[in-house]
Amino acid sequence: MQCQVPGADRMTVYKLFIFNRHCSCIYYHEWNNRLSSTLSPPAAVTSSETPSNVSRLSHSNVQIASKSLSHGLDNQEEEIKSKEIEEDSKLVYGIVFSLKNIIKKLAEFHGYLALSTNVYKLHYYETPSCLRFVLLTDQSMNNLVDVLVELYNVYVEFVVKNPLEGTDPSKIQNLLFVSSIDKFIRSVPGFE
Predict the structure, then answer these.
(1) Given 40, 119, 153, 154, which residue has the most CB atoms within 10 angstroms?
(2) Mean pLDDT score, 49-66
(3) Total domain count for the chain?
C-alpha cells in the first residue's frame, strides 16, 4: 500500500480529519503537529484542587491521594485535548464548507480541492456518499488526491466492510483501520 506522490521531496503530514455526511468528525489523527494549538495549554493545579488534609494522612493514603490527583490531571488533560480536537475539526470543516460553496458558485466542484496558506496546505476529498477527508500537510506539497482516494479505500476496507462498525459510526475506533491509516501515511515517500 505505497503511493507515489509526484514532487514530494519532503512531506510533513500534520493532521487527518474524516467527517461523515452529518458534518461530524468521526476520525482524527495527528502526526507532526507544527501548527499552533487553538487552545491554551492545560492550566496548572491550584492549591484549592489539592486535598486539604494531605498532611494528616498516612503514607499509603498520601500515595492514594497523589494517584487520584494525577488521575484527575490526566482526565483534565484528556478533556482539554478532546475539546481542542473538537474545536480544530469545527474550524477545518468551516473552512472546507465555505470554500466548497464559493467554488460551486464559480465553477463545477469535482470533489477535490486544495488550499495553500503560508503555514500549511489543506487537501480535501469528498466521496459521492458525502464522506469528507481533510489532510493538512506542509505547504510545499503537490496535489494529494491519490493519497486521499487511497485513504478512502482503507476506510471502505476496514470500516464499511466491518459488520461491527455499524452503518454510520459516530467515532471510528477500529484498531485495524487506525493502524492501517498510520502505516499508509508513514509509507508515503518523503514522510517526515
Answers:
(1) 154
(2) 38
(3) 1
